[in-house]
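pls design
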């Protein structure tokens, strides 16, 4: 499998999708920690559920280094957090339900950013068709 190496000539859309992916990933990490430790933990004083953000920290370096493989697998990983957000947005009450809805929005942003990033980079990497 050939890897697409990042070049110094990035299109503005590639840079924007990278920024959106990194920003939404960081926001998911901060939201998960704040939610389970301070804002609306399952138990007073915080919850071990805050450890759910650990898998989100793994792809951060790959996204920053523009590794195509990382963008691809993050677009799959994010659906676990999306599912949690949907379940908790419909079953929790009060602040926890609002935080879950925010998690859903951030997951959708992350997915769209990763999908667009991969699509644009693959489109830019294709050689121009030759005339017959």
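designed seq:
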């Amino acid at each position: 499998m050939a890897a697409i190496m990042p070049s110094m000539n990035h299109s503005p859309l590639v840079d924007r999708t990278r920024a959106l992916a990194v920003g939404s990933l960081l926001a998911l990490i901060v939201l998960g920690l704040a939610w389970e430790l301070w804002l609306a933990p399952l138990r007073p004083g915080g919850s071990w559920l805050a450890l759910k953000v650990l898998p989100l920290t793994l792809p951060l370096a790959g996204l920053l280094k523009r590794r195509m493989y990382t963008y691809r697998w993050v677009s799959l990983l994010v659906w676990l957090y999306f599912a949690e957000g949907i379940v908790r947005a419909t079953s929790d009450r009060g602040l926890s339900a609002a935080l879950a809805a925010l998690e859903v929005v951030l997951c959708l942003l992350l997915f769209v950013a990763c999908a667009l990033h991969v699509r644009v980079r693959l489109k830019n990497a294709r050689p121009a068709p030759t005339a017959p």
